[in-house]
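// run 5 | inverse folding | seed 20
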C-alpha cells in the first residue's frame, strides 16, 4: 500500500448505511444546504486515519427531479457523500414498512405486527419486495463507485440484502456487514416469513459483526437451525465457504466528550444547572422516544421509589429528555401520550407549588447542553427493554470524571456486557427492582461510587469508536486474505 514515491496510499472505505450523515435542505431548484450530523459512526470514521472513507446512503429527502438530484449529488460530493435516491413509495414500503415496522420490533423481541393478520401477511410480501428492491438500488450505487481494493462496509438491519447484491456484482469485492441492533434468539428470528432469504443474503458477506458475543451466537444458531449450515468457532460454513462472524463492541469518541467539559459555554451551563437544582440529587434519562427504550417503565419505577421513600420526595429530580422519532407512526404517538400521562400523574401526586419531581422534555438537546447535563447528573437511568449497545451510558460515564455518578443500566442493553461491573444492573421490566436500584444509587457511599466509576471510565476511554472501526476493517482485510490463502491451498 505505497505509491511509487513511498507515500502511503490510504485504502478507500465505502461506508454504506441507510442514512447519510448529513441533513439536506433544498434552498432552490439547484441549490442545497447541508449539515453534517456528528453521530457516533461519523466520529468513529473521522478518527480513523488509515482509511479514506466515503459514505453512500439516502439523504432523507425525496428529490423527484433530475436537476435537484444532480445539484444534491454535487453538493454531497464535497462532503465525501454519495446519494441513493429513493422515491416516496419505496421509502414507505422499505423504510417505514419492512425496516421499522417489521425488523426493528422483531430484533428487539417485540414480535411481528399483530393488528390484522391477513392484511399484515399481504402487505408483508410487498414490503419485503420493496426491501429487496431498495437494497438493490444501494448496490447499484456502490457498484458504480467501487474501485478494486476498496473495502465495503454495510451497516444495519436496513441493508441485510446488500452483501448478496454486491457479491452478485463482483464476488471479489471485500464486503463486511455490521448490525447495530441486537440479533435475537433464533426462536424469534424463525418467526419471520423471510427468515432464510435474509440469513443467506447476510452470509454473502466476508465478515459479519455484532455488538456482543451473544448476538453473534444467536446469528450462528439461526444459520445452523434454519438453514442447516455448519457453525464453527470462526463463523458459518456453507459448502467450504466460511463467513466469519464475530463481536465488535462499538464505543464513543470519549475525548470529544471529555474535551467538551472544558468549553466555557458548557462550564456556564453546568453552573446554571447546579444552581437550578441545588439541594436536590439529579437523575437523568436521555433516549429516543422509542418502545425499546423502556421510558414508561422507568418513570413508573421512579414513581414507586417516591411512593416508598417520602424522605426523598423533595430531594431528587428526574430529568427525562426524549427525542421524538417516527412521529407519524400511531404506536409512537400512543407511546408519547402514555409517557405524558404518567409524568402528569406523578407530578400531580408528588409536586409542590415550587418544584416537580419529573422534568420531561420531548426534544433533542445540542451536544454542549447534553454534556453539561451528563456532568451534573448523580444517577443516570438507562433502562432499555432491549438495546444493541446504548451509547448514552458511555457518554454519561465519559462526562462524569468529577462527579462519580452512578449508572443504573438495563441488563438487556449490549452495554451491560462492558459496563456491567461498574453499573447497577437491573431488569427493566421489574419496577420494584429498578425502584430499589434508585435507592441504592442515591445512598451509595463515595468510595463505592469512585470504584465503580473508575472501572467504567477506564473501559469507555480505552474502547473507543475509532478502535472499533479500525478493528472491524482490519479484520475484514485479514479475513479476505485468509480466505484467498485457503482457496490457493
Ligand atoms: P440508538 O437507538 O439511536 O442507536 P444510542 O446508542 O443510545 O441509541 O445512541 C443515541 C444517540 O443519540 C446518542 O449519541 C445520544 O447522545 C443521542 N441522543 C439520544 N437522545 C438525545 C436527546 N434527547 N438529545 C440529544 N441527543 C440525544 C442504535 C442502536 C443502539 C446502538 C447504536 C450504535 O439502537 O443500541 O448503541 O445504534 O450502534
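// decoded
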Amino acid at each position: 500500500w505505497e505509491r511509487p514515491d513511498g507515500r502511503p496510499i490510504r485504502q478507500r472505505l465505502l461506508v454504506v448505511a441507510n442514512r447519510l450523515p448529513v441533513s439536506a435542505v433544498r434552498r432552490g431548484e439547484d441549490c442545497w444546504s447541508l449539515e453534517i450530523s456528528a453521530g457516533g459512526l461519523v466520529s468513529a470514521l473521522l478518527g480513523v486515519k488509515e482509511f479514506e472513507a466515503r459514505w453512500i446512503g439516502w439523504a432523507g429527502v425525496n428529490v423527484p427531479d433530475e436537476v435537484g438530484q444532480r445539484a444534491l449529488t454535487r453538493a454531497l460530493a464535497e462532503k465525501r457523500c454519495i446519494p441513493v435516491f429513493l422515491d416516496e413509495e419505496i421509502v414507505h414500503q422499505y423504510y417505514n414498512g419492512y425496516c421499522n415496522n417489521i425488523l426493528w420490533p422483531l430484533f428487539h423481541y417485540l414480535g411481528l405486527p399483530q393488528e390484522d393478520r391477513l392484511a399484515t401477511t399481504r402487505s408483508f410480501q410487498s414490503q419485503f419486495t420493496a426491501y429487496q428492491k431498495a437494497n438493490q438500488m444501494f448496490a447499484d450505487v456502490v457498484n458504480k463507485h467501487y474501485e478494486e481494493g476498496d473495502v465495503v462496509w454495510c451497516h444495519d438491519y436496513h441493508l441485510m440484502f446488500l452483501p448478496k447484491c454486491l457479491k452478485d456484482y463482483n464476488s471479489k469485492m471485500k464486503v463486511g456487514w455490521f448490525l447495530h441492533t441486537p440479533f435475537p434468539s433464533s426462536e424469534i428470528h424463525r418467526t419471520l416469513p423471510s427468515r432464510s432469504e435474509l440469513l443467506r443474503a447476510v452470509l454473502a458477506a466476508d465478515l459479519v459483526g455484532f455488538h456482543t458475543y451473544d448476538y453473534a451466537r444467536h446469528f450462528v444458531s439461526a444459520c445452523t437451525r434454519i438453514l442447516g449450515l455448519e457453525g464453527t468457532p470462526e463463523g458459518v460454513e456453507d459448502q467450504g465457504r466460511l463467513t466469519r462472524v464475530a463481536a465488535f463492541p462499538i464505543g464513543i469518541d470519549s475525548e470529544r466528550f471529555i474535551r467538551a467539559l472544558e468549553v466555557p459555554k458548557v462550564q456556564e451551563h453546568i453552573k446554571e444547572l447546579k444552581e437550578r437544582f441545588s439541594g436536590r440529587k439529579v437523575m437523568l434519562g436521555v433516549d429516543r422516544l422509542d418502545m425499546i427504550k423502556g421510558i414508561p417503565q422507568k418513570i413508573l419505577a421512579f414513581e414507586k421509589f417516591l411512593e416508598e421513600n417520602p424522605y426523598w420526595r423533595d430531594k431528587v429530580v428526574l430529568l427525562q429528555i426524549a427525542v421524538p422519532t417516527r412521529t407519524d407512526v400511531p404506536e409512537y404517538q400512543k407511546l408519547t401520550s402514555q409517557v405524558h400521562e404518567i409524568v402528569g400523574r406523578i407530578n400531580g401526586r408528588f409536586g409542590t407549588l415550587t418544584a416537580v419531581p419529573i422534568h420531561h422534555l420531548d426534544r433533542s438537546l445540542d451536544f454542549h447542553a447534553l454534556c453539561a447535563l451528563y456532568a451534573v447528573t448523580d444517577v443516570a437511568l438507562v433502562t432499555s427493554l432491549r438495546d444493541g449497545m446504548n451509547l448514552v451510558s458511555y457518554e454519561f460515564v465519559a462526562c462524569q470524571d468529577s462527579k462519580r455518578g452512578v449508572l443504573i443500566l438495563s441488563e438487556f442493553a449490549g452495554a451491560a456486557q462492558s459496563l456491567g461491573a461498574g453499573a447497577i444492573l437491573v431488569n427493566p421490566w421489574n419496577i420494584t427492582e429498578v425502584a430499589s436500584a434508585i435507592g441504592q444509587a442515591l445512598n451509595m457511599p463515595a468510595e463505592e461510587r469512585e470504584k465503580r466509576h473508575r472501572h467504567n471510565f477506564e473501559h469507555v476511554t480505552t474502547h473507543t469508536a475509532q478502535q472499533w472501526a479500525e478493528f472491524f476493517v482490519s479484520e475484514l482485510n485479514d479475513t479476505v486474505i485468509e480466505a484467498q490463502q485457503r482457496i490457493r491451498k
